[in-house]
Amino acid sequence: MKLEKMDEFFDKRADTYDHHMLVDLQLDEFYEEVTKYLDCSSDMFSLLDLGCGTGLELERLFKKYPNIKVTGIDLSQEMLNVLKQKYAGEKLNLICGSYFDINFSKDCFDYALSTYSLHHFDESTKISLYKKIYNALKPHGIYIEGDYTCKTINEQLLYIAENEKLRMEQEITNGFYHYDTPFTVETQMKLLKSAGFSDVKVVKEWDSTSIIVANKL
Predict the structure, then answer these.
(1) CATH 3.40.50.720 is right for the domain spanning 6-215
(2) pTM score
(3) Contact yes or no for 62/90 (Cβ under 8 A)
(4) Which of 71, 93, 170, 174 has the fewest beta carbons closer than 10 A?
């Protein structure tokens, strides 16, 4: 298996991504569920969307909260182009780049959201991002993560070992390459708590996907 650079992988698939997620994988229920936890008494709120892709998670939010202000970050310019076409006229600030490298203002967002984006990264990389998210959220802000998860630590370690093996064989020393390394929900919750979130809970689980909500108290 040849590893592809993350941005190139998703650039190639931008035009078919929505069909793949909604028709091939039948994830409409997931996107319905993950947006339930953005429940604001006013529609005047801000959202940081990490790895926003084509914005599948945004459709219901724009309908429910027409004045929501979204800052979306993604490595793939082609995915962002699809998103812009779908939601022309909405309050969007789109940034093409790595959310690991982009600085977020402190206490800036009411909510942060990530869907099917962070299952490519190791523990230390995730913790550094979670700390940035925590600092970027306003007091009592909420982070919602919906992503692939695995059931056991052994399974988690196997994904990590295989990724390291492929990178070594292909002489890849750094950079973002597409390979799934999902963690258990227990690991995910531990990382979020290590980053400062004190109220962390799993709100929904399927066979290989979970939704975790973390509150900044």
Answers:
(1) no
(2) 0.95
(3) yes
(4) 174
